[in-house]
Amino acid sequence: IGRNGITTNDLNRTEVTEFLLMGFSNSLEVQILHAVLFLLVYLAALMGNLLIIMLTALDAHLQTPMYFFLRNLSFLDFCYISATVPKSIVNSLTHNTSISFFGCAAQAFFFNDLASTEIAILTVMSYDRHVAICQPLHYEVIMNRGACVRMMVISWLSGMICGFMHVATTFSLPFCGSNVVHQFFCDIPQLLSLLDSEVIIIEIGVMVFITSLVVVCFVSVTFSYVSIFSAILRIPSKEGRSKTFSTCIPHLMVVTLFMISGSIAYVKPISDSPSTLDLLLSVFYTVIPPTLNPIIYSLRNKDMKAALRRQYGMLHGYFD
């Protein structure tokens, strides 16, 4: 086994046993800065999502379909950012960029699994808001507990299937010798640049298929919000319109940023030498959504603020 994690077998072929995650820079100062920034963002994302999980699970006033979906989204975001950022922080602090072949495969699986699940859950949440605002009289019938549970089960299963399809096709193909991944985590597009161009047609097909599903989800989300905004414009109260717009627009912006940046990264031509722009683009679909979602859904939400005050009051009374 070579020092770079590459094995040369008897047939003079190379077999990758580990990968090197090159990240943002080889500079020690930049690596430390990257580690500190990622650590701060990671802690903020963890605290925000754990707070939402706790409040929506404990507070009796938040036992509605909207907060059931939000609890699932927060748990997913907790796992999603944990699949990539901690390893990147450790790599920068230890100046050791290696990750084993199976570790890379596991990271790629969980990342794609959770990313696909997030797209499905965001689509379901937009449908939930569509029904709540456009069909309020039928909301409890349409969004009953059984329907909500089925939607979440389908969302999580769809993510697992997408993750398995990506990993099964990519890691079953022979790598061409280089094991340098120009990314801070094992991202499928960068891994494909290490494969022989003649054998990646299957994985490209998988990427096109899954990206097509993302487009369908994005169209569904867009349709839901067009209907929501149309209903909002019919609200006679200016204050009511402003309140609903301020709730929906940030959500739509994060959904759009997440889906479009991820789709661009997965459908653009594969490059052997990605630019800094490619690395920054990956931040938009790996780090920003799980960090911003708690801010959008808790700090801007009166019900969540009220639930936090109630839980704080109960906790304070318990210790008194």
TrEMBL record:
Among Pfam families, the record links this protein to: 7tm_4 (PF13853)
**GO cellular component term of the entry, any:** plasma membrane
TM helices/strands, residue ranges: 32-58, 153-175, 200-233, 245-267, 279-299
Q: Which CDD domains match?
A: 7tmA_OR14-like (cd15227)
In terms of Gene3D superfamilies, this protein maps to: Rhodopsin 7-helix transmembrane proteins
In the bilayer, the protein is annotated as:
Multi-pass membrane protein
The record places domain G-protein coupled receptors family 1 profile at 48-297
Q: What keywords is this UniProt entry annotated with?
A: Cell membrane, G-protein coupled receptor, Membrane, Olfaction, Receptor, Sensory transduction, Transducer, Transmembrane, Transmembrane helix
Function statement: Odorant receptor.
The name of this protein is Olfactory receptor
What organism, scientifically named, is this protein from?
Loxodonta africana (African elephant)
